[in-house]
Design a protein that fits this description.
53% of the residues lie in helices and 9% in strands. The chain has 182 residues and is mainly alpha-helical. The longest helix has 97 residues, at 85-181. The protein folds into two domains: 1-82, no CATH class; 84-175 and 178-182.
Length: 182
């Protein structure tokens, strides 16, 4: 068994004990109690095996009491020796790249959500503008029909005026004939 330590390591299956809520860069393949042979803590229970993703001990497994945070014993031991410095640096770089990709993915998903909300808002604006445009088009159609009626009536008025003038001329001619020839 490796040496005991009390350094703070990251242990969780991704729910918030991490620096920025990043979680482990890769998901656990097995639960914390799915290993053998069993290692017992001071309480006599099977100790949980977690993976540290701290800068000091990236991807290094350790055992701790499953109930440590809820009043269990203070059992805590490394399950593995530290990795060589090159491997540690490589693991840290890979972990940071995964975390950066996750952050970027979250940002993009947030932007996508904002864009979807904006699209819905603009759809409402477009619907309102289309309704207004349709109302204006209907008014224009009504105005065009009224304009056509006015033009037709003006033409009829011109014809009626011409007819009245012709009638007046005919009447004047008839009265003049009667007056002059009687």
């Amino acid at each position: 068994m490796a040496r005991a330590s009390s350094s703070s390591s990251s242990r969780t299956s991704g729910e918030g004990a991490w620096g920025e809520g990043e979680g482990p860069p890769i998901p656990y393949r097995r639960g914390p109690l799915q290993y053998s042979p069993a290692v017992l803590c001071f309480c006599g229970n099977k100790a949980a095996r977690w993976i540290s993703w701290s800068d000091e001990n990236p991807r290094r497994r350790y055992y701790t009491c499953i109930r440590r945070r809820a009043g269990g014993c203070r059992y805590w031991f490394w399950a593995e020796e530290p990795h060589p410095v090159f491997i540690q640096e490589l693991l840290i770089d890979l972990r940071n790249a995964v975390w950066a990709a996750r952050r970027r993915n979250r940002e993009l998903l947030n932007q996508l959500g904002d864009a979807a909300v904006m699209v819905e808002e603009h759809k409402e604006e477009v619907r309102a503008l289309r309704a207004e445009m349709d109302a204006i088009a209907n008014q224009k159609e009504g105005t065009d029909a009224t304009r056509d009626t006015i033009c037709r009536l003006e033409k009829e008025l011109v014809v009626y005026k011409l007819l009245v003038k012709c009638c007046v001329v005919v009447l004047v001619v008839v009265f003049l004939k009667k007056w002059l020839f009687n």
